[in-house]
Protein 1
Amino acid sequence: MSSGPDGNHPEERSPTRRSATAAATAPAAGRPSLEAGQIVTVFRSRRRAGSEQEYERVAAEMDEHARRAPGFVDIKTFAAEDGEQVSVVTFASAEEQAAWRADARHRAAQDRGRSMFYDEYTIQTGPSTRVRQWRRPED
């Protein structure tokens, strides 16, 4: 394993191995605990013009609903310079991610997205096989 910029090894988590430096590199307060074995979904999309207000309303409802779902870990959404949006959603297990995928309110929002909000999207889903974390030590 390579050293971080200060010569320390970054935290690496796998389903079978935990680093002895876990306490030193644990997530900061308010940050999600990312672990190997969690299920990560990458949702890449391009939205239709003219649907922004309704999209924002539905997206806010789904964000709130997802955060209450069993096994929810984190969601982050980013916008690229070319207009593509990317959301990275993490659930604790495949079963909990599958339950979210099958959730009736989520399914209804997906149907609405296809009919009203999106020109295109791609979804990639799979288990995280390794997590490496590094945080600058406090002075």
Protein 2
Amino acid sequence: MGAAPRGGGGAGHFHYRRYSDLCRRGFGGCLEPLRSFDLDPATRQPRAVAGVPPDYFSADGQLWGNPLYLWKRHGDDGYSWWTARLKASLELYDVVRIDHFRGFESFWRVPYPAQTARFGTWVPGPGLELFQALQNAVPEAKIIAEDLGLITSAVAALREDSGCPGMAVLQFAFGSGAENPYLPHNLNKNGVVYPGTHDNDTALGWYAGLEEKVRDQLRRYFRVDGHDAGWDLIRCCYEAVSRLAIIPLSDILSLGSEARFNTPGKADGNWQWRCGGPQLDGLFGHTSDYLLELGGMYGRLKKPNLDETKTGPPEAS
């Protein structure tokens, strides 16, 4: 799950913390009673572990290694652990994001032990039943579905039926045709739009690493010259029909790849960037005024104010 702290500011402005939704082997125990995981009762070792199958990016898939839920047992007690966890999270946060949403429709089960994720099978997840239990127990909950990755029609239907807004990442929008679901003209109102997430490069780092034909597509799409690509993506998020926009702080600071949080599949060197007080102090003035202007212009303030002085985007450092 991921979450947005309570009192996070105006609509569309949240700092969020991501934490693991599944415990891994080696913790010495699981966060949920052992009987609810697919473990050997004698050894407490997994009978199978999670991952994703081989795809265009990885011939071996990704072997995550965390134990799997025994969903029938969770269902038998009305998903009480899930509802308790959601209630606890909402005491701290305004919004909770559930990562790897597609796993609730079906998940990749890899027999243990394994060296790669090649030889797994798709197994049905709890489906809508889980979300109905959460809705009944915590009707006021605000949940975002992290529906990135291999999204089938069945996964899309589950997200629609659950009512949870999905995610749109603008860095995934370019490099293909007009039908790309992440292009702004294809976005849904019941969604959350990001320039990029913690798993992406910063907007400027991403743009700098693109092939020229993809950069050209972005420039033509936004009708810009590309010298301020990071702020072009930020402005697009504010303009989008999506009900919520989340902007990484590193993009507001116009930082490059040195401020990237995480590189999926890379074990070391992640989560090292830190933002200092002087960097935050530097946002007050031109940058904050421009964000306020965008928020008012596109209805992302609690009390929209269209009388702000036009400032234009801040200069990239």
Protein 3
Amino acid sequence: MTKSRNKIPIVAAFLAVMFVMTGIASAISVDINKGSPDQAESAGDPINVAPGATVNFSLKISAMVNDSDLFNITAFSITGPPPLPTIALKAPPLIIVGGNFHLRPSGMDPYIAIDSFNVTTDASAPNGTSWTLFVEVKGITPLNGEAIDTASASRTIRIFIPPANISGTKFHDLNQNGTRDAGEPGLVDWTIELKNSSTGAIIATTSTDANGDYKFSNLPVDNYTVQEVLQAGWTQTAPTPIPPGNYSVTLAGVDVTGKDFGNYKKAVSISGMKFHDFNQNGTRDAGEPGLGGWTIDLNFTNGTIFKTTTTASDGSYKFTDVPPGDYIVQEIPQPGWTQTAPKPVPPGNYSITVTDKDITGLDFGNFKPKPPGCEKPECKITGVGYIPGKLDAKATFGIAGRSEGGIVRGNLEYQDNGLRIRSTAILSVITSEDKKKGWITGLAQVNGSGSYPFEVYVEDNGDARGVDWFEISVPAIGYSNGNLLSFGYIHIWK
């Protein structure tokens, strides 16, 4: 019994020596890596790829063998849901799939064989789809072809599309053209909603910041709808068409920007008066007439002109269809006039914020400065003529004013389609040093009654063939008229 027990370990030792001497493989190692065969990665982690992407893999087979030992790949496959990725071996392959091959020595390391191949996923593969890449290798004895060892390796390949963002701006579309132009500000505290396009459910909401910007972050692959929550009194202009006025977004791992929303509020009007400020106090008093033909601008705060208009014959002006926003209203100065309103001057303009209500009373006052009175013993203004009338085709006038030794004398006769002004007293006669401009003030009856202050302004062209200017105003009755003479003359001298 003892003898027979000793024979078993002797036979086992003999067989082990024979396996080593003949080079029969005792262990095989198979590794599948993305990229380099020595790339450090955990075999248990899935390899993330994008739809339609081609990824390079390395296959490394190693074993403690001799040069003459043979190996065979018995399985090389990808399994999982369709559409399956495709495998393309390097041409020509170093490792033959389905045939026998040798391993080669690698210094002190085991004998190895390394080859590469590409895996290409289908572009339509949905996010999260995964497949198993499987390789099996067996060793074959050089004598009788019997399998002596088998090893395998597998890796999970998964479609992974990273989360992405959707962003845009909510802006005040001042000119209502559906596009954000220079000077159009962002709108704060507007609600933007994100919906799932398939279910219609709202999955997130956010509010625009001080610049009108918004963002939805870390969104998975899906189809989304981005929409604003309309506020009372506002009209949407972008995106078009309206309705629906929203964006359909397919998110696939890449940020989507520029999903902007434009709106404007109910348009309002801005109005005021351009008046002749006779007493230069910056306020329109009774009897101070309007001034026609003056240009008034409505500007954005950056100085860009939004609208422009001209005052009517009564001095009134009006801007219509003005959307909400910040603006500056200003007059365009005319030569020879000095501005008195609004104060301070300069800048002599109005900075306004338009909401949903009309704005009135933005008045501008101006006067014509008068030069010093006559310093010489004699100062005279005379003239007769016709001017284009306010109510009729022409108005007639005749004037004569003079200052002699501090005594002022003269008269005025003026008619305009039934209106008759006749002076009762001349109070002042002033002429400019160049004898081209003159002023006469006094009291007059209107249609035979009352005693009303009046002012006459004249310009002498200085040439008998030239055209002179005559202008009259009676503030108490709100009357003024003036123009180049269509017939007649004016003389100024000292």
Protein 4
Amino acid sequence: MKTAMMASIGLASAKIPTRAKIKAKTRLESGAALEKFEAICQAQGGMREPARARHIHVVDATRAGVVAAFDNRRLARIAKLAGAPRAPAAGLELHAPLGTKLSPGDPVLTIHAETPGELDYARAYLRANPQIISLDGSG
């Protein structure tokens, strides 16, 4: 489990200096990282299930490729059009992080909104800005 967790946060990468890997591994194995995470969660109101938006739209890949880049400013704009941060359940859920191989129809992200109008605004902006998520190659 800990090895999988380390890989998921990039500690298996040769790009991270050895000293940093050792420090991170020590904190993960000792439980210090979990304690810090739990303290942060408590400071923000405790561990709880996030609210569910009333309206959602899953955005699927239209072609095969590898997720190469995101335009974070435009992603933030979609989230705001969907009602974030005013509506706690509004925003984006990313299904395909950088490096993910996609086939046509694979889910890339989900837009969450409290009202149909906000969801429509967010979807219209995404349609007008298809370059928000860049795919390289054919997967």
